[in-house]
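can u do me a favor
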């Protein structure tokens, strides 16, 4: 099932902007919307407004998946739109007139309808006008391959032309009101059907698509990893207390999976964690929350791409993970992986690169064992609310496919699902060993940490969320007795330790 709210997976092509001031207003007005997960915005701008000022304005939006193409006014509307379609990357595309205010809820509803009705195209209607006016056109990406795009010989009625060709191919039209309501009938009012241009559009014989070798020039594309993007990264890093880049050529490389690690006072484990992690991933980014010990200085690994130290203002897990996502957005990686600084892979179940070959899966879950009193036993009776947790193993969603700039949207800053979206999910045969509450001293420290950081601590304590940290009598099992098969945990028969 597609998680539309957290990954809308949609290209929005914006046409009709004539001046730089119009573009600035449009960007400021819609920047929060454009930052939502899975959105890519493709602008068609007249070449007259392309300038260094435009480039400077673009740099103010480093975490938006933007693409800007310039065009000559000698190009037909169909040619301009085909250039934009060539730069689209998502499963569905929406072409909009720029004069209308945008709302995220509308696009969520639109995407939901587009997923449900696969053999349809969609006319977006402004029903507040009389007669109702079509202000947008949306369709599945496959339509580009089936039709070749817009007829470049047309400067008007080009949308009607592609609709007529889609009708021939068996697609049907659905009207969508700009408020998000489906409309059960079509809007082609106010057009003179006797017009030769309209007749030519409605009854196409040989549409002329992609007849122009170069229809426009790409001014900016977030999807292109180059030195310009590296400059944006450096500008962002300058906002932090301290940072170090270990590989200045990373922006030109492609990675299968990059680990995102946040730390705070983890000098006890950070060296071993990075060493262990380096065997399983091909890149690491570390964010230190102003540790009071030597954690930051001890961060070194052949796989470490860069490390960053931020100013701490209390513990905010949500903010830290979202910073890591922003840092990761500057790199070209197929997957990202959240892992804590006190977690290490169990040697039998550490083949991370194997799961990156499964392109049909977007999000992977992993299992964690909480080591208890030593390095070879884990606690088998820790309560956990996740339905996938079993035999003392805690199940968590941690690995997710890169869909462009991403953020985690949650209504709390602690104990949330730690991936930006959930869709096309699967269990993995990956197992982490959690060292952070291995001894009694660390367990008491963790209890005090949650007591200070969790504003709903008393409620969660009554629900049994933290009491396990203070338990005297527990059930322990050997780590070697635990196994995973096809993503499901099992335990070999053996006596438990008390």
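np, heres the sequence
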């Amino acid at each position: 099932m597609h998680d539309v709210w957290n990954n809308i997976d949609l290209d929005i092509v914006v046409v009709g902007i004539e001046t730089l001031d119009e573009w600035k207003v449009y960007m400021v007005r819609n920047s929060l919307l454009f930052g939502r997960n899975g959105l890519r915005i493709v602008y068609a701008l007249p070449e007259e407004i392309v300038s260094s000022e435009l480039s400077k304005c673009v740099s103010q939006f480093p975490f938006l998946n933007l693409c800007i193409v310039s065009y000559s006014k000698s190009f037909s509307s169909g040619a301009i739109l085909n250039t934009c379609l060539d730069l689209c990357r998502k499963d569905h595309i929406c072409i909009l007139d720029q004069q209308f205010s945008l709302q995220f809820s509308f696009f969520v509803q639109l995407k939901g309808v587009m997923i449900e009705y696969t053999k349809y195209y969609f006319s977006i209607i402004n029903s507040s006008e009389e007669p109702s006016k079509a202000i947008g056109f949306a369709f599945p990406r496959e339509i580009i391959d089936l039709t070749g795009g817009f007829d470049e010989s047309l400067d008007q009625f080009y949308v009607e032309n592609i609709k007529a060709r889609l009708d021939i191919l068996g697609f049907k039209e659905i009207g969508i009101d700009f408020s998000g309501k489906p409309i059960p009938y079509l809007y082609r009012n106010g057009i003179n059907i006797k017009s030769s241009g309209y007749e030519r559009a409605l009854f196409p014989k040989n549409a002329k698509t992609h007849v122009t070798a170069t229809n426009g020039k790409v001014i900016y594309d977030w999807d292109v990893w180059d030195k310009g993007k590296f400059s944006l990264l450096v500008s962002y890093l300058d906002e932090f207390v301290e940072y170090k880049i270990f590989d200045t050529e990373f922006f030109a490389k492609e990675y299968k999976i990059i680990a995102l690690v946040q730390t705070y006072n983890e000098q006890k484990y950070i060296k071993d964690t990075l060493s262990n992690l380096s065997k399983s991933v091909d890149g690491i980014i570390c964010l230190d929350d102003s540790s009071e010990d030597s954690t930051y200085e001890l961060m070194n690994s052949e796989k470490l791409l860069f490390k960053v130290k931020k100013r701490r203002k209390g513990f905010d897990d949500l903010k830290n993970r979202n910073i890591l996502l922003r840092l990761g957005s500057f790199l070209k990686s197929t997957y990202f992986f959240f892992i804590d600084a006190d977690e290490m892979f169990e040697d039998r179940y550490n083949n991370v690169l194997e799961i990156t070959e499964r392109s049909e899966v977007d999000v992977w879950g992993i299992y964690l064992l909480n080591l208890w009193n030593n390095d070879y036993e884990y606690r088998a009776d820790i309560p956990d609310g996740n339905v996938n947790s079993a035999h003392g193993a805690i199940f968590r969603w941690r690995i997710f496919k890169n869909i462009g700039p991403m953020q985690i949207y949650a209504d709390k800053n602690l104990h949330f699902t730690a991936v930006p979206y959930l869709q096309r999910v699967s269990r993995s045969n990956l197992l982490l060993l959690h060292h952070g509450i291995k001894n009694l001293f660390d367990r008491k420290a963790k209890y005090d940490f949650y007591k200070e950081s969790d504003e709903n601590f008393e409620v969660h304590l009554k629900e049994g969320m933290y009491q396990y940290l203070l338990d005297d009598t527990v059930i322990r099992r050997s780590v070697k007795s635990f196994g995973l098969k096809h993503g499901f945990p099992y335990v070999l028969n053996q006596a438990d330790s008390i």
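The chain is about 25% helix and 25% strand. hope that helps!!
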